[in-house]
């Protein structure tokens, strides 16, 4: 249980077996069925979720009912509505499972306690938040200034195996494109 979580943790900050056992006491396993919510907009985000198996997405829905995917999370990735988690404000995103999934959850209370009592957990958290901020900044710059073809190439570089795992309309949503535009981009790239 939590094998991939600790494998990921140890690539950033090396833990002893005793430290792993101490952290494991704060972790909660969770299974989600495909299309099942981990979080719904308006609810407080009580967990950070690490994906052991499966795939999830974080998204908002606009007033016209269109979904705007903010993030995918596959094995080894973390997902949450970080703003809601850190501020106790209502969530602005929905998070649901694209596939049947197995997660490792860290509650807000557990997170706070680990930050105070375990310096290595604080370092791991800082590295994750810094990495997420850098990724968000790169994505924002890409959406603002890159051609659709370049965005699709970037998507394939970040999520090399997800193209086979999620519907094309979700990839289009993540890229800020219509499914029709994504289809044209993909055809154009095959012709290169």
TrEMBL record:
This is cAMP-binding domain of CRP or a regulatory subunit of cAMP-dependent protein kinases. Pfam families: cNMP_binding (PF00027). It comes from Daejeonella lutea. Coiled coil: none annotated. InterPro entries: cNMP-bd_dom (IPR000595), cNMP-bd_dom_sf (IPR018490), RmlC-like_jellyroll (IPR014710). It comes from the Bacteria. PROSITE patterns: CNMP_BINDING_3 (PS50042). Keywords: Kinase, Transferase. Residues 15-115 form the Cyclic nucleotide-binding domain. GO terms for molecular function: kinase activity.
């Amino acid at each position: 249980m939590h094998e991939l979580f600790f494998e990921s943790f140890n690539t950033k900050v090396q833990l002893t077996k005793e430290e792993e056992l101490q952290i494991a006491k704060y972790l909660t396993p969770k299974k989600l069925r495909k299309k099942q919510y981990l979080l719904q907009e308006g609810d407080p985000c009580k967990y950070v979720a690490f994906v052991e198996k499966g795939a999830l997405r974080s998204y908002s829905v606009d007033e016209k009912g269109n979904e705007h995917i903010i993030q995918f999370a596959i094995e080894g990735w973390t997902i949450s509505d970080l703003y809601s988690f850190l501020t106790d404000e209502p969530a602005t995103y929905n998070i649901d499972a694209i596939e049947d999934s197995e997660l490792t959850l860290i509650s807000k209370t557990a997170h706070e306690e680990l930050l105070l009592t375990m310096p290595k957990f604080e370092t791991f958290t800082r590295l994750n938040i810094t990495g997420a901020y850098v990724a968000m900044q790169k994505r924002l710059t890409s959406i603002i200034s890159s051609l659709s073809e370049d965005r699709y190439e970037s998507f394939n570089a970040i999520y090399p195996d997800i193209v086979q795992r999620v519907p094309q309309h979700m990839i289009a949503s993540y890229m800020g494109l219509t499914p029709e535009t994504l289809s044209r981009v993909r055809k154009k790239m095959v012709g290169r």
